[in-house]
Amino acid sequence: MSTHKSVETIRLQGIPVSQGIIIGKTRLVDRSRIQINYLYLNGSKESRAEVRRFKDALKSTKKQILTIKNGMSEQIKEHSFILDTHLMIIDDKMISETTVKTIRNELINAEWALKKSVDEIRQAFEKIDYEYIRDRMNDVEAVTERILLNLVGKEHESLANIDERVIVVAHDLSPTDTSELNTDKVMGFITNAGGRTSHTAIMAKAFKLPAVVGLESVTSQVQDGTLLIVDGYNGNVIINPDDDEIIRYQEKQLYHEKYESSILKDSHLPSETTDNYRVTIKANIEFLEEIDAAKELVTEGIGLYRTEFLYLRQKRIPSEDELFEDYREVVEQISPSPVTIRTLDIGRDKFPSEMLEPGETNPALGLKSIRFCLENPEIFRSQLRAILRASAFGRVRLMFPMISGLQELIDSKKVLHEVMEELDSRNIAYDKNIAVGIMIEIPSAAAIADILAKHVDFFSIGTNDLIQYSLAIDRTNEHVAHIYRPYHPGIIRMINFVAKSANEAGINVSLCGEMAGDPMCVPILLGTGIDELSINTEGIPLIKSVIRSLSRKEAMEDLEELLTLPTSKDIRRFLEKRIEGVMPKIIENGLQENIS
Ligand code: PEP
Ligand code: MG
Questions:
Q1: Which residue's CA is the closest to the ligand 1 atom numbered 8?
Q2: I need a surface site. Which of 145, 330, 353, 463 has the fewest CB within 10 A?
Q3: 138 or 217: which carries more pLDDT confidence?
Q4: Can you give the pTM of this predicted structure?
């Protein structure tokens, strides 16, 4: 029986990226970049008013920065010089005077005039061949953003301040926004933008925050305080649900909790098929804080430590010692099992980091990841030193991301060997036999896996990027999310070739993309002879239970057939049949609703 249905119920379908059902009130946050429009002013009267508006915005900006500075706690006070720099930038002639002149002389609005001043500063900075100075442009950009917010009358809301039990609704959230969320309070989030394997999605899973992305225009369909149901299993979002629906979802939530605790109960059992084929199961982590959850579920180690988040959180390059302390802690905590530490895999497509080149038109194909490291040897070497030093405290495997060909691998290994020699000369301990591997996530690397296999100790297949680059589908773009297909015959063939090349060369091959946590993919992975899966911790019990229900012999026979199927749809149907009966109905339903 419905009691409070006075408003319209709206049902939306998005992309589920982090499991769980939440029912609660919304909190709308604005993370969109400020849109700057060009406006022509009508004479000197308007320009005078515009100058006043600009000066007021400068004043408010200064006041806000001073408030932040005065409110800094003792522990972080030493960093207040950053804010002093920002205050100086506001007073700088290049910003204040030039903008005022442009408003007066060219009769254009304050926002556009400020943008012109900043463009000029950027051009001047780009010519300077001194990294430190060039990096100061980031400060100019940060201050400009703040002035613009004041001009348009918006406040930059830190998500860390949300301390109510709410569901966050935003156009998009950056991984930094997500890492700021108070996970004790915020119930989960939904966004207009985003894709299944975006880093924001991965962070939501890491924090166990139910999340649905790619809802296109949900921010315009809710207000602050709207009642919502978010189903992180199948991507359904219900705005203004009625009481019956709330009860139905509460039941579904209970059912899931029961099912999850039942598979959790068996999660200590070995991940062995019915014909005793053993797959090593490891965990993916992004932060040191995830170690406890990982330790509860896996005993075989960390298969992917995504190290970029430490850089991101601090919004600067951490020192070698800071990195070392973090890695040592992970290594010691997980010892005697191994930890695969991946070197910095940073890119503007993944994180809008200040460290990276602004203005790349196509950041997913830009100066990122291993390319960024090779072009910034000091950043790279400092991380390599930290990883090597940590290797003296347990078992570390070192992994290079985004390797596209042999030369890049040789260049990366050369830097590693130079760093090893440097540590030798300083008598610093490290594991001299450290295993060195690469991610296979660029199609060119997959195609020459047989060649690359001779130069490394292990491969880890990064399907998130492998699918993105092979199918030319932006993994963060909600408009193409429906055609992001792990079951594409091209992908299955590539995975098969990489696994075969690794097996023939006698090296270990793991798979660490989100595909490793998809139960439908388990038969493919078993069939291709992958030794190891590395999964977000929450997905481990389910994948283990699926592995224990299948036979490797059958999976190998299936693969023969799968490799002849022409479309993703055919492959999906085949897998659906295979998985039937293996998992309880509820999960099948979730999957069917999920897969297009
Ligand atoms: C991948 O690309 O599959 C992967 C595991 O790396 P990331 O998601 O960090 O790019
Ligand atoms: Mg990747």
A1: 464
A2: 145
A3: 217
A4: 0.72
